[in-house]
Write a structure and sequence with these properties.
Layout (H helix, E strand, L loop, with lengths): L4 H15 L2 H7 E9 L7 E4 H15 L2 E12 L2 E12 L2 E14 L2 E9 L2 H8 L3
Parallel strand pairs: 1-6
Antiparallel strand pairs: 1-2, 3-4, 4-5, 5-6
Amino acid sequence: MREHLNLVVAQRLWNAIAEGDAGSLREILAEKCVWRMHGSSPLAGAYVGADEILQFMARVGELTSDLSSDLIDIYTSDSGAILRYSVHAVRGIQSLDTEHLFLVRIAEGQILEASFAPIDQAKYDRFFTPQ
């Protein structure tokens, strides 16, 4: 049985992020890809295009002293995918352990839009908001 194309794209996306592979990430992001981080933290907003998305990722790395994610599952359809994953992060004396949903719209093997939805948005916002 052949894997669904969007499953392959979602797995490539996850691997590129996990490995810090900017080149692979640029290959699968559509030119005008919109990357949304919801909430009220300083990271909230919409990032458009690979350069802004990579800057966003670098900023997350700068704000944390320890950051790890584990993929739990990927759900796919003909229009995209949902990645469910857990996150562990440390920032100063604070730590964050939560799950997220990563909703991705895919067409012709490219990520058109991505939206992050922490299961506990308030907890995520508190963690990334300076005290």
